[in-house]
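Worked example 3. Consider a protein that binds BES.
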Amino acid sequence: MEFSIKSGSAEKQRTACLVVGVYEPRKLTAAGELLDSVSDGYISNLLRRGDMDGKLGQMLLLQNVPNTLSDRVMLVGCGKERELNENNYRKIIATAINKLNETGSMEAHSYLTELNLKGRDSYWKIRFAIEATLETLYTFDQFKSKKSEARRPLRRFIFNVSSRRELPVGEQAINEGVAISNGIREAKNLANMPGNICNPPFLAANAEKFADEFTHITTTILDESELEEMGAGAFVAVSKGSDIPGKLIIMEYQGGSAEDKPLVLVGKGITFDTGGISLKPGAQMDEMKYDMGGSASVFGTLRAAAELKLPLNIVCVLAAAENMPSGNAARPGDIVTSLSGKTIEILNTDAEGRLVLCDALTYAERFNPELIIDIATLTGAVIIGLGHHASGLMSNHNPLAHELLNAGEKSNDRAWRLPIWEEYHEGLKSNFADFANIAGRAGGSITAACFLAKFMRKYQWAHLDIAGTAWRSGQNKGATGRPVALLTQFLLERVAKAS
Ligand code: BES
Ligand code: MN
Ligand code: ZN
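Given these inputs, the predicted complex is written out as structure tokens:
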């Protein structure tokens, strides 16, 4: 799909379809008024006759409107003007895109950028129209023998802006909207992939592909034997339960100058989580293929950053392993020594995310980072606490936490902070080792983060628990690509702050 910006009068556009908003009841937007007057009231006549009143989600397709140069005009219902908000705006875009795809218009010139959204400028309207468009058009049919291709798919989408002065900001919105959407697509594709294909070596190969595709990215893969030798006993305790070898995947993106300290993103990459010997119940266990959603979002964010050529240094550390029950699997009660030297009593092998992550976090310290953010589908408890709308955010550094919360607001990919006070660490005490890998049922997302915090004393650190946001369950189940938008926004704000 190709996006571009233009500033021009609606009746003069030679295109397959003009897209024009109509507010309820039967109130034309500026482009609609113009088309109506050049066509001597053709459109207002139809509306008066009752063909459409502008309710949200309505659509009326007109052919050959008199005295215009486009093949079609699509009127899209926008609801009451006063009630227009961000979510409705996204719905309007999605409706328009679906209909355009059905009607066979391969090109569209949209005047929906003139919709009156309080406090939102052209940048916002264009960027989020792109994100909504590519969200609407996303399909994952790689494993279907029959693909669901539209006969004449929409190929080119033109955003109209009211003056030429707005062209540059429109271009910026396109670049950023497309890069973020490409990142989201990357993350969705990886997380939707089944566990028999997307395993740790597959993720490692994907990292090698990144190094081939982007000149500023270099990839290093550490094998299970190297990790064992290094002393990453917590990681190995998980990955040795599987016949498929675990990998620690490192991608280094150098977009900044050599002396800039890197921002480190650490991703949980459990390519399938059976629970191990503490086996999970069977229902919906298929969904545990997305337990590498944290790593998927790191890939997506790195893609967005590299496509935008952000002037930052970013290091990604992905802990890729499969959590299986087997003769080699860790047993409840096993004690292992982590890369940090601290010993851990594994009371529940299903709390494997924190085991692979604590070693990845310790490893991340080698890069002398500016800050470390880990992203993980870490706990079912975060779904109980926050549902599917907000990612859980926990951090040892207030300014970093606020930056991430703000980036979430700005990118429509929100997080909500939970505390990790000292009192919560209590439950992780072990009778036999430095700490246990689980606490009681209370505050499960918090105690999981507290476990990680024990390994992150030296650096600014934040943890995003995305178990509720990275995946949609039910009929329409599938990966969401979250929190690629939040993380990329965070990086964009860092760039803006530095310049
Ligand atoms: N991958 C799961 C967390 C999860 C659960 C993600 C549901 C998405 C949906 C994680 O490894 C896990 O099993 N966590 C346990 C921790 C418990 C044993 C302390 C959980 O949440 O039940
Ligand atoms: Mn688990
Ligand atoms: Zn898990």
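Take a moment to read the result before moving on. The radius of gyration is 25 Å. The chain has two domains: 2-163, 180-498.
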